[in-house]
Design a protein that fits this description.
- By secondary structure, this protein is mostly helical.
- It has 13 helices and 4 strands.
- Helix content is about 70%, strand content about 5%.
- The strands form 2 sheets. Strands 1-4 form a two-stranded antiparallel sheet. Strands 2-3 form a two-stranded antiparallel sheet.
- The longest helix is centred in the middle third of the chain and has 27 residues.
Length: about 325
């Protein structure tokens, strides 16, 4: 078995563009769920709004990429208002139902044949990253020679993406140390008590939904730029659940929880994938027990088992504080 190759693949994925996408999405869910207690199961919808707004403005209407980014931010606020106005006065599960349904409706809409000329149907859109790649200062392969390297375009996306993650963490840290952030935490603990003190709980929840959604939109931008394409299947329901897994793994209501959770999640899932594939290919694991086709599924089995144990023995996540927030998995 080539453990050097396994290490290289693991590092590439743990810190690569896809890890950044899910890190930003999880930061948004941290604002929603970790700090405010909002059950948003449609974070993929905010990602789709960002990705498709950016791509369609360039590829369909021939306008600037930067205008597409602005349009994406505006549409994100509109989507948050549409989701929040009818649900945030109700119980938390209503928001969960509406967001998961809205995400699927949005994905089916942009992939429909009726809107094929605008959003490209199931094939999606491409040819919109020219302005972004024109700013790329790198060439060839970039990284640590012999250990881990990325292509120039991927490393450019990583540079912008990790800067965005750092700024997002700084914004969340500043917000949660402010009186506004303390009100959010109080709403998560007991919104009736907050309401009795004269605070407009509905308004605070709406602000949280908008801000967390904007982080999801940033994730959509990075997703589109890293793949140089946007397609409906990238915004399926499992995208949101992967982001939740990352959040719970690192620890909800912790500024760096999503960052640590992302590196561990993508590093572990790719390490297990490479390990089992090579173990099956080199007969370390007999073919009678597992072949190479089954090896790809073993990572999900092992990771699922690890998450079950985490929920039982450390429900607050690796770096979370059980006194502040814990997920009761029993």
């Amino acid at each position: 078995m080539d453990f050097g190759s396994i290490l290289t693949q693991t590092l590439q994925q743990a810190f690569g563009p896809l890890a950044i996408v899910y890190c930003l999405a999880a930061i948004g869910l941290n604002v929603h769920f970790g700090y405010t207690g909002l059950l948003n199961f449609g974070q993929a919808a905010f990602m789709a709004v960002g990705g498709y707004a950016m791509a369609s403005v360039v590829a369909t209407w021939g306008l600037s990429l930067w205008l597409g980014i602005v349009v994406g931010l505006v549409l994100t606020v509109v989507l948050a208002l549409l989701l929040g106005v009818p649900t945030l006065r109700l119980r938390a599960d209503y928001l969960a139902i509406v967001t998961i349904a809205a995400a699927e409706m949005l994905r089916q809409t942009v992939g429909s044949v009726t809107l094929l000329e605008y959003f490209g149907g199931q094939d999606g859109l491409n040819s919109f990253v020219g302005d972004f790649r024109a700013l790329n200062p790198y060439s060839g392969s970039v990284g640590i020679p012999g250990i881990v390297e990325w292509r120039a375009n991927d490393f450019w996306v990583m540079t912008v993406g990790w800067i965005l993650v750092a700024l997002s963490c700084l914004v969340v840290w500043a917000l949660m140390r402010s009186p506004w952030g303390r009100v959010l935490k109080a709403i998560r603990e007991d919104e009736d008590a907050v309401r009795s003190l004269g605070k407009n709980v509905y308004s605070y929840k709406m602000q949280s939904l908008v801000i967390g959604g904007l982080f999801g939109t940033f994730a959509g931008y990075i997703y589109g730029l890293s793949k140089a394409a946007v397609i409906p299947t990238d915004y399926a329901t499992d995208t949101t659940f992967f982001a939740y897994t990352i959040l719970l793994l690192g620890g909800a209501a912790r500024v760096f929880g999503p960052v640590v959770g992302t590196v561990i999640f993508w590093g572990l899932i790719n390490f297990l994938d490479q390990f089992f594939r090579q173990a099956a290919a080199h007969d370390v694991i007999p073919q009678a027990i597992m072949n190479q086709n089954q090896a790809g599924l073993m990572r999900f089995i092992v990771l699922g088992l690890a998450l079950m144990l985490l929920m039982i023995y450390r429900p607050q996540g690796i770096f979370g504080d059980r006194r502040e927030l814990a997920i009761d998995g029993r």
